[in-house]
């Protein structure tokens, strides 16, 4: 297998995704503290922890009170285990070929595995038999999401097969909620009614099952009655709440760049592909070397501002024109103090970047809170999840570990 090696030296790239592990620990502590005493918290670190770096985010979440880890793909689950992280690890998304290749190692590592079909059950059983171990399985029930999981009419059959298979240990039932962030709808209640009815029948058929888990971040924050034995929390750990909450959640990632060029233009100057923006008056434009190849959503063109840290203080500058592959243009205004090399925060967290970037000029003026991934998501008509996970590999990650007191 060949592994691609980035051609660019990250030391010479102007863009940075700054990850604050202390914020992840803080957010986890906030969420864990809101749970019932009997409810455990699974930190979902799929998709490289939503772009924040899986291993660092996992350890930060465990420091904040998580006691489980969840990763969609088996390879990620194995990476967590091989990194020496000794907590229950759950994985749920695999095709038959991946299963045949990785299930024996997963079972040997005591990774907990979702099953949602007869074929999945057979694959896990076969791998467990080869490993001479019992696999710990979570039976997934499709209560209306329409993705993975067994349909209600097939659940009892799978439960009986699991009970009768000496290679398998059925430790949990679970489902995924399709609309937990739609607080005014009854979809979630209908899904839970289906889930509870099936679990009751399943218990009568095969005996007690130790764990139930149904709550994603939205349900964790809005439906305490759905916490059950375990909640699976993802986006909330990284500072974004899909539903209103009183918890103090702090964005854990900031995307920064620098101004590459400033130029004065007259009224009538168009900007970018398609000439979708024209300067109404004379102004100063700033060129910033970050674009959709770095993860900015082109659909947000002309609908969001960035924060420029000038020597005279912070200022907001609207992005104008079409977002290009490698660059954007912002309207600094005719009286802006911005210069080349000034730091630009594309999105971030209040106080997350108080320490100036290396080589940045000292700022003596007012400080402002930067835009967030939520602002970019709103501008692009999407969700913060997509903004965070879309940052490309050519954006170097700068990880900031929490101070000793923050991790306590």
Task: Note the beta-strand portion.
Answer: 15-25%
Mean pLDDT: 93
Number of helices: 11
Roughly how many Å is the radius of gyration? Answer: 24 Å
End-to-end separation in angstroms reads: 41 Å
Structural class: alpha/beta
Query: What's the overall geometry?
Result: elongated
What is the CATH topology descriptor of the largest domain?
A: TIM Barrel
The level 1 CATH classification of the largest domain is Alpha Beta
- Write the element-wise H/E pattern from the N-terminal end onward: EHEHHEHEHEHEHEHEHEEEEEEEEEEHHE
Helical percentage:
25-40%
Q: Name the assembly state.
A: single chain
What does this structure look like?
This protein has two domains: about 65-235, Alpha-Beta Barrel (TIM Barrel); about 255-400, Lyase, Ornithine Decarboxylase, Chain A, domain 1. Helix content is about 30%, strand content about 20%. It has helices at about 20-30, 45-50, 55-65, 75-80, 95-110, 120-130, 150-165, 185-205, 215-220, 375-380, 385-390; strands at about 15-20, 40-45, 70, 90, 110-115, 135-140, 170-175, 210-215, 230-235, 255-260, 260-265, 270, 275-280, 285-290, 305-310, 315-320, 330, 345, 395-400. It is elongated. GO terms for molecular function: alanine racemase activity. InterPro entries: Ala_racemase (IPR000821), Ala_racemase/Decarboxylase_C (IPR009006), Ala_racemase_C (IPR011079), Ala_racemase_N (IPR001608), Ala_racemase_pyridoxalP-BS (IPR020622), PLP-binding_barrel (IPR029066).
